[in-house]
Model the fold of this input.
Amino acid sequence: MADVVTVLAMAGRLMATADEAAALDDGAVPHRHERIGPDCPLDCLDLSPAVPNALEWRFKHGKGQKIRTVGDLVLLVDSGELRRVRMIGPRRHGEVCTALIAAGFSLYISPSLRR
Ligand SMILES: [Zn+2]
Done:
């Protein structure tokens, strides 16, 4: 597992570098960061679309606050709420945790929610 996280983290850095190079080429001004931080938009985690879609559904149906940033998502995981979001199964939950850990966040995941 540690190896997978390391590889993902390296891939993230490579992709960020490639994005910056592309941005210089076409003059666009994308979101820039040294590393993913709590204030980054969810886009920075490069999650599969199902995750932001599920979070948007949850918000639109009045089941929780809008999740705008990576920091919001960390709190959602830490509180155990992510696991209860409709359309977030163990696989998506794992994807989110892996992405956050690869980005350098420490997560508290209660033992009953670990898989
Ligand atoms: Zn960012």
Residues 2-113 form one domain. Residues 31, 33, 36, 40, 44 surround zinc ion (CB under 6 Å). Helices lie at 2-26, 50-60, 70-78, 90-102.
